[in-house]
Amino acid sequence: MLNLDQIEQAAQHLFQVRKTKIPGTLIPEACRPTDRESAIAVQQRVMELMGLPIGGGATDGWKCGVPKPNGPLVFASIPASAISRTSPYSVPAPKGAASRAKIEPEIAFVVAQDLPPRATPYNDDEIRGAIGQAHMVLELLGTRYADASAASPIDLLADSYNNVGLLIGPVIPNVFNLPLDVLPVRITSPTQTLYDKTSPHPSGHPMKSFSWLVHFLNQRGLGLKAGQIVTTGSYAGVVETPLSVPITVELGGAGVIVAELVAEAA
Questions:
Q1: Distances (CA, A) of 209 to 52, 67, 118, 139, 181
Q2: At what angle do helices 36-49 and 4-20 cross, to 10 degrees?
Q3: Residue 180 class from Cβ within 10 Å (0-12 exposed, 13-18 middle, 19+ buried)?
Q4: Among candidates 103, 102, 101, 97, which has minimal Cα distance to 22?
Q5: What is the C-alpha end-to-end distance of the chain, expressed in Å?
Q6: Per-residue pLDDT of the chain (266 residues; tens, 9 = 90+)
Q7: Global pTM?
Q8: What span, in angstroms and rounded, lies between the C-alpha atoms of 70 and 49?
Q9: Is the four-CA dihedral 104, 184, 208, 214 of positive or negative sign?
Q10: Do the Cβ atoms of 39 and 75 come closer than 8 Å?
Q11: Nearest alpha-carbon partner for 247 in 186, 197, 201, 199
């Protein structure tokens, strides 16, 4: 486990990369996390440096998924500055990179009532009752590391596990009447089909991801706040899409998002 000075050094490294909007090196070895707890501490300290105290209601979104045995911990805070309901949506595009963005089509839940930390776990009815609307969303993916291939799952966890943004699409009416365990996904541009496949939810069901997050935060003395949005995992894995052209994302009976992703200004 990193000590407080190392956590601060690692967080400052990632924070500076976020400020410059230019991918940088991995966290220096002297303060590079090698365990989940250290990585989460770094991630949360980065949010604090951005002016978003964790647990104080200023973190406006979360990404999560039920961890698989021996698999990575996919968990991150999403700041308000990275959440949008409008298109075009700007995404990081390093110089020299191909004109592509990485997206994941997902279902997200908006919290309707606070779920503060408490000594006893929340039950299923309480968790379900805390959900207000459900939305179809696109998670926008990227990393603050210039050499993403060299980043371990712990490195990614420290860096918000590839999250660079969230585009909120339409409300999904009667969401729990849909077969959310498996949904067809079709993603097209004006000139090609980018993805067309029926796939299972990575956690088995979006509610399993949401429930996992509630329990995970509660165990850490944290909670969810009304108004926060929780995105729960991709039905299509990662899909690369072109920049500066409209794309249409259809998620079974859950809805359709038509959006244009553009390169973020330096």
A1: 23, 9, 20, 15, 12
A2: 50
A3: buried
A4: 97
A5: 35
A6: 999 999 999 999 999 999 988 899 999 999 999 999 999 999 999 999 988 655 444 458 999 999 999 999 999 999 988 999 999 999 887 555 557 899 999 999 999 999 999 999 999 999 999 999 999 999 999 999 999 999 999 999 999 999 999 999 999 999 999 999 999 999 999 999 999 999 999 999 999 999 999 999 999 999 999 999 999 999 999 999 999 999 999 999 899 999 999 998 76
A7: 0.94
A8: 31
A9: positive
A10: no
A11: 186
Which residues, at least 6 apart from 244, have a Cβ–Cβ distance to it below 8 Å?
Answer: 99, 260, 261, 262, 263
CATH fold of 58-263 reads: Fumarylacetoacetate hydrolase; domain 2 (3.90.850)
Matching residue, tokens 């899409």: 241
What residues does each domain of the chain span? 58-263
- Using omega within 30 degrees of 0 as the cis cutoff, is the peptide bond preceding 23 cis? no
